[in-house]
Amino acid sequence: MGLKLKKKNMEDEINVERENVAAAINCDESVRFSQVTAVANRWIFDFWFVSLCRRFKEGQFDEFNETLSTFQEICPKMKGNIYHEKTMICAFLARVIHGNELDVQFEDEADVMPLMSAAKMWPDLKSTVKDKSLSKNITQLLLVQSVALCLEKGKLSSASSALRWYANNREFPQNLIVKLTTIVTRRETYHPFLMSFSFSRLLETIKSYLDAYLEKNPSDYLLKEATNFVQSAPLVEDSEVTKDRSVSEEAGRSTGNIKTKRKLLSTKNLDVWQSDSCKESFVSLRRMSKNDLLMMTSPKSVDTSKNKKTRKRPQKWTSRLDTCLQIGVKRHGQGNWSRILMDFDFEGRTGTMLKDRWRVLMKAHKVG
After folding, report:
1. CATH code of 149's domain
2. Would the pTM of this model clear 0.70, i.e. be above it?
3. Looking at 183, 216, 249, which one is the last position of a domain?
4. Are 269 and 65 contacting, i.e. CB atoms less than 8 angstroms apart?
5. Is 348 helix (H, G, I), strand (E, B) or coil?
């Protein structure tokens, strides 16, 4: 019953917009242009939003990136909560698409991977999900996958850092964090728990979320109209394609070979993702301007050479760090420096540095 009412409201809204356009045509030029533009922009925005959702659901990630570059040009013209919400969803999807990469950065913090950034945004989108179990599954999948990815790539310290980040930034399920911490400590890269929360399962769960959202918020008016237009005149389009093909083949014969046209927008070109405007900070997500939201949809850089975190020169050892080192040795044993590093924040120090410091403490008879 609620769905029928929702569809009826959408149909009424479309009819009102049609009447506004019809009325605007009879007005002076300036009024007509502004009204028609406003309606057209709403339809165009929804068209590209639905296109992005479809690209994501069909796994066409290169095409998603290209479509996103067009979507970003339209967003500044739109005002209202619904457009803010849809822009947030697209920014979220952009992060998930790069979820299995460690060298793509969306946040100012170099250690924040794409899935961590997506997890940071997800609580602001929970209001768009009625199914609480679906929302919970996405939260768990984002958390588990960001840690599992680090283990798969042999980045144990990054996995431990991710878990600390989750604990400090969001109230994620503590039992889940404890379980993941145990897995990371034991270096169980292929633990059955991690395998059950795979990246493919994350994608499928988000597809279910998109299906539910689009059913609740139909955004396909322009898409349907364009589809009806194409279906009503298929012969015209086919004849034009045939004509173009015959001309191309004739040109090919005259030169001795037939060449296919190169795509104007290569699906392998990701330069459209790079933007100087992406130097803004995205730490706060609740009160963001429209420009901030646009910049959220693009990584800061896809060039890994530019994304490498500059290591700060370690400061002097403090009594706190010495205490952490002693606790770590007592817990894991002398020589297990990599495990000790995962338990405490040694401010950028390496396992070799921990070993050297331990020798200094032993020579000074400060440890047994």
Report:
1. 1.25.40.210
2. no
3. 216
4. no
5. coil
